[in-house]
Amino acid sequence: MKKxxxxxxxxxxxxxxxxxxxxxxxxxVHTNPNFITRAxxxxxxxxxxxxxxxxxxxxxxGGFVGRGMLDAACPGAVFTSPTPDQMYEATKAVNGGNGVxxxxxxxxxxxxNFEMAADLARAETIEVEAVVIDxxxxxxxSLYTAGRRGVGATVLAEKICGAAAEAGSSxxxxxxxxxxxxxxxxxxxxxxxxxxxxxxxxxxxxxxxDEMEIGIGIHxxxxxxxxxxxxxxxxxxxxxxxxxxxxxxxxxxxxxxxxNSMGGTPLLELxxxxxxxxxxxxxxxxxxxxxxxxxxxxxxxxxxxxxxVLKLDDELTRLWDAPVLTPGLRWGT
Amino acid sequence: MKKxxxxxxxxxxxxxxxxxxxxxxxxxVHTNPNFITRAxxxxxxxxxxxxxxxxxxxxxxGGFVGRGMLDAACPGAVFTSPTPDQMYEATKAVNGGNGVxxxxxxxxxxxxNFEMAADLARAETIEVEAVVIDxxxxxxxSLYTAGRRGVGATVLAEKICGAAAEAGSSxxxxxxxxxxxxxxxxxxxxxxxxxxxxxxxxxxxxxxxDEMEIGIGIHxxxxxxxxxxxxxxxxxxxxxxxxxxxxxxxxxxxxxxxxNSMGGTPLLELxxxxxxxxxxxxxxxxxxxxxxxxxxxxxxxxxxxxxxVLKLDDELTRLWDAPVLTPGLRWGT
Amino acid sequence: MSNISKDKFISxxxxxxxxxADQKDYLTELDSAIGDxxxxxxxxxxxxxxxxxxxxxxxxxxxxxxxxxxxTLIQTVGGASGAxxxxxxxxxxxxxxxxxxxxxxxxxxxxxxxxxxxxxxxxAAVGDKTMVDALQPAIKAYKYSIGAGEDLQKALESATVxxxxxLRSTIPIVARKGRxxxxxxxxxxxxDPGATSTVLLFRAAAETLSL
Amino acid sequence: MSNISKDKFISxxxxxxxxxADQKDYLTELDSAIGDxxxxxxxxxxxxxxxxxxxxxxxxxxxxxxxxxxxTLIQTVGGASGAxxxxxxxxxxxxxxxxxxxxxxxxxxxxxxxxxxxxxxxxAAVGDKTMVDALQPAIKAYKYSIGAGEDLQKALESATVxxxxxLRSTIPIVARKGRxxxxxxxxxxxxDPGATSTVLLFRAAAETLSL
Lengths: 333, 333, 211, 211
Ligand SMILES: Nc1ncnc2c1ncn2[C@@H]1O[C@H](COP(=O)(O)OP(=O)(O)O)[C@@H](O)[C@H]1O
Ligand SMILES: Nc1ncnc2c1ncn2[C@@H]1O[C@H](COP(=O)(O)OP(=O)(O)O)[C@@H](O)[C@H]1O
Ligand SMILES: [Mg+2]
Ligand SMILES: [Mg+2]
Ligand SMILES: [Mg+2]
Ligand SMILES: [Mg+2]
What we know:
C: mainly alpha
């Protein structure tokens, strides 16, 4: 295993310590339990947003803490959802008196640990709402299964809901907005390579030189299907097709196109994918009015990409454009 | 070779086309010859900044075109310096009447091709100054050699000089400022893995599981020495030691600490390195007052890191903080 | 039939922590195939933390003992298994209460309550390819055996056998719960990591509780 | 001794383009060891572009012919080799001027001017481990041979041999110019890519100019 770490046990703690040192003006890092809050938390009277999940997806979530986005993020061990005490302490630390929204990616572990944290917080009369993000079209949805995974739409939901909370929306309103983003966003991802979890020391799966995984999540897990390697244009079609069909996105829609790197795919390649995705949507009469391109929700050093498309309306566009000041996303300030 | 591309021949053109589509509000992409300009170029009366180099270093340079940074960037083939006609056309396109500064990384090919372009532009009475960046302490400097490579300090120079040009400084002033950044910045890099140039199809060099390259540049070339793999803290010391000695940086100095990913190293690991670098400098009485952490000057998907330290004064700090609006760096706007 | 003392329960937990330590890499390997390669590390982190609390464990009744195990797992494991095994011991602790020891029959009820907690949290049924596939039949076998007047050792052994059968039954199943469900058809042909760690829980019981 | 017609120079360029195409991967391999793995691709891109201009090449004098080669290389190759080989042919074109053919002696002067251009641009001297290490001795040998009254073919062959010796001499050298210089000691033990492509230039000449 080739990694810039000191030991698998310390990588998360040392990494968030570095994050805190680099962005002490924006965030504050708390340890045992580990969580990251806005430097100015709690913000009196503002609805607070708390998210979290396993580490290894950086900049998500810790890099999205700051004005106009999250109030707190709880990093678990690599690819392991955080523990209830982390979310419980974070919730208490950022509660500004108008309630706390938990933005939860739909993974059994995340959902259950956030539920337990919410129970603890509510027991102390903190008003907590939880919204579960499940935008991954690679997973067939069903009442009898764990359902779809939460992936790219999480980043967009955190930015958009953060803007609404900053603007003074109520907990009910921010929760409703979060459901709206989830309802209008769809994603799908693929991997050219696996990734190596530090405490495992070897790639989670082996992928031959001429094959790729389609329909992966963000935890280095294998995808729905393994196929022969294809060109960037073909891969973009394979990912975008199911996304467009699923919502469905229709001619005349205005959308945000988010092309994400799983970590190891460089921008040179990512923009080749963006170019094709933009072309396909445009040909279908779908207007790309906002874009996000880069590594924002990653699986360590995995090479691959995921595409997320979010249907926009004036409200979502305005909130997307609103100022944001975090280590990972910043504009308007 | 596993890459999200359609063909090695088209990767650069398709990638800058995608970049242009994603950021049409900020930049304009011109083809044959290929160069990228600010959407509002030429800016009358403003000194224009032109840089360029081989592709594969994204976001540098194309991602740094926009208000407060570069007026134009010229992308060559992967790891191959662009041709004079690219810089010549870019220079003409962004010339606002008050002269054009060429920011050139010190590689024989880059220097010679920029020289030829400058000759062509001057022949048309465009005032052109060129500043060569050579901040890589891994290379011993000497009058009889090609000298040191231009690496991390290039990003800082483009940001700082861009701010000065935006504020109305003259060509002479901006050129002097560029020399100042180069004189006060030092860098060194290392690689955990090689990278694969698309038209070559296999890694530029082989690196055993337990070895690393110290003192690499940004073209996937091997470094000065190959050693056994070490911990993140040890590697940080190996890189930072020569940097601090070379300037030298002294107790009481205020600095900008730039920890860069070569492309394949994820943020989780990069912040482990940042943490140690920040600790070492602080212990030495060197005050880290500004930071930049992420993949900003890369070698395709190479795993590794480079550290750049820039000695700051009030002028450099103010210009660093000034608003910048580019695809790759954005704040204050 | 003799009761199970608190000290026996302590040995049970310690033995289980030992099995987890031994099987850590194997559990992670199973999780690599259909999950995210952390089940072994998760369980090991949790039970090492439990061992570190050995002092507190000593001076507690059975309920208090399980409560410490529960809170420690909940606060150190994370993931699905942390919430689930944590809930299991939390419910078991409530059921056991302030007793210094449990009769084999009482222990059956305690296990039942633990299972109920897991099902309430995880909403998984037998056949979903989860730890429930091993836990439910194991407890059923244990209670049947005790009800039939067999001794504790016999009951724990048949529980272990049932757990192992339950584990084997997860192999052909296409997962409906947990991460493995994201793989669809591809999850078939692999044993469930959580069901595997559940087998170890009963094996440890059979090796400690009746002696 | 018979002169070298413009058509012969065209065959020279075409033959060189062919050699580059054949040796493309080898040149890149050499550049992988001490450079950035693009010399073969760079030269190939450039000379394929030159071939594409075949039509224009036909109706030009020798100077015009070299001018087209120069501008095409400058605009399509990039890197150090683009600027250097481009400059070589640019200076050669000025020296050759509007002549329809060159005497072997005139060709020597033309080569000299090309070399001077490379040295002016790149500031490399023999021994720096660059193309100059092959180019300089090759031209020297060519001129010596012509001066000694040997025929063109003989002169081109001794030039090629001298280029090859120059190339071999680059192997042990620690580079002082170009990317290879960044490697310090590690650059020793490898042949210089540009010197290798220069050998091909003279080999192509010996295969075309005197026939
Ligand atoms: N809804 C559920 N109900 C019961 N057990 C579950 C459920 N979801 C997952 N599990 C169990 O948890 C195990 C995975 O645990 P672990 O890998 O530690 O957590 P995670 O899946 O969050 O990485 C699975 O093998 C399965 O037995
Ligand atoms: N200053 C110089 N003078 C003469 N030749 C040089 C100089 N620098 C580099 N070269 C030649 O250029 C060759 C490398 O060309 P190429 O790989 O195409 O360009 P780059 O080095 O920019 O990638 C070297 O092998 C060397 O022969
Ligand atoms: Mg997990
Ligand atoms: Mg090159
Ligand atoms: Mg797991
Ligand atoms: Mg080269």
